[in-house]
Specification:
With 234 residues, the protein is mainly alpha-helical. 67% of the residues lie in helices and 4% in strands. The chain is globular and about 55 Å long.
Length: 234
Amino acid sequence: MNVLQKVAARKLDRTRQSAPQVFEALRESILTVQLEPGAVLQRADLAEHFGVSQTPVRDALQRLGEEHLVDIFPQHATVVSRIDLAAALQAHFLRRSVEIEILKAVCALDDAAHSALMRYLRKHIQAQESALKPLDFVKLAMADRAFHREMYEAVGVSSLWDLVRKQSGHVDRLRHLHLPQKGKAQAIVNDHRAILRALARKNPAAAEAALRGHLAGTLSFVHDIKKRYPEWVD
């Protein structure tokens, strides 16, 4: 399959700058491993694919380079990077540390704000459940991220979500490689239900335990993933 056929289809919004939209489309395709490690990204081909000049494509690729999702070889090629296990472990540590504090803050919300958040989180779980049958990995991953982002926004630290997301490219790709394993998709939904139950009771200790189990799920299988994809994982 041609590389461009793997790039997430997206009609650009002409009222917005092109570079961020190209970046978002390419990033999503990399995180969901539609663009595999080693895939070569040609600036001219991408410009034609998105219907833009090469300048926004260059800017998008530079941003991907800053997140270490692509390797840029000047005057030669831009290649989707291999998955860096060390970077994945650091991103996991960062996210776990931040989200444990967020769970505590959620449990301390006033009743009105807490009730509203519980409703939103239930809707995100419903979206995850709808992605199970038929199983849609991309839709499930998006609903998973939406569940977590909702909590960052509820306690007023949405900028930390941006920071965590920027650091999480490698661990997100590992999660996507682990997602097809039998029972993994259902386990993600079950984990979110456990987190929601604890938060609904305003029990931060139980919420933390559920979160730790949820975030550790993929990394506990990281050596198996590396064995299955040795050419993709460093």
